[in-house]
Amino acid sequence: MSVNTHWLWNPEDLENTPSVQAGISMAEENKLRREGVRMIKEMGKAINLKTNPTLATASVFFHRFYMFNTFADYPPHMMGLACLFLAGKVEETPKKCKDLVQTAKDKYPKQFAGKNLMDELILLERILLQTIRFDLHVEHPYNFLVQYAKGFKLDKDYMSKIVTNAWTFINDSLATNLCLLWEPEVIAVALLYMSFKMARMGEGPEGEAKMGADTKWWDIYVQNLTVQMMEDICHKVLDCLSTDESSNST
């Protein structure tokens, strides 16, 4: 697998994060994580940064940071900007500090109304680097999705739609804590599985029959992955989407 195990946690750990210990409910923490990633995406797109890899890397940095720090101590809007600042450098799509700050002020004038924001951003970047132990290598599910999709002998146009939908699900997953629970390979397989299911393909794309009755297509890519594990991943993404839709309708 592609992720160092020290960047993966058990579900129980996510119920006892520093923010939870500080009195913030899990529901509120999840909301703050979603809002932080949404701001990262909106600010990033405003300065022409792509989700894969820069905004995705910023989102992973964001989620990892709050496994060691609280939202009470570090408001998500400034830390989100710091994650975006660092991710731009890591993924060789750097943006000037002053340009990021100006974009943030334009997009979110209330949250970024303070003075000396450039100095604060540089300081937060240093704190972020220390928190993530200067480990800047991040892999995402996107490349694995493309790699795995090549193994299916299906209609080209149809498979293109399957991959496009799965890619969108990966984008949506950035707002969840899945990157703290699962390797990117697992997330890629699970959301490819969801894309097939939503296309009413069931669990048996062409080629499965050749592997034997006890073998599923995903066994080729990730061993010991059960349907229940994939369903849990899919439901986490769908729950996040339904929560966002409810928030937008109120």
TrEMBL record:
Keyword entries, A-Z: Cyclin
Pfam families to which the protein is assigned, alphabetical: Cyclin_N
Protein name in the entry: Cyclin-like domain-containing protein
A Gene Ontology molecular function term of the record: cyclin-dependent protein serine/threonine kinase regulator activity
Gene Ontology BP terms: regulation of transcription by RNA polymerase II
Domain (Cyclin-like) ranges: 38-130, 143-239
Family the UniProt entry places it in: Belongs to the cyclin family.
Domain of life: Eukaryota
Entry annotated with the keyword Acetylation: no
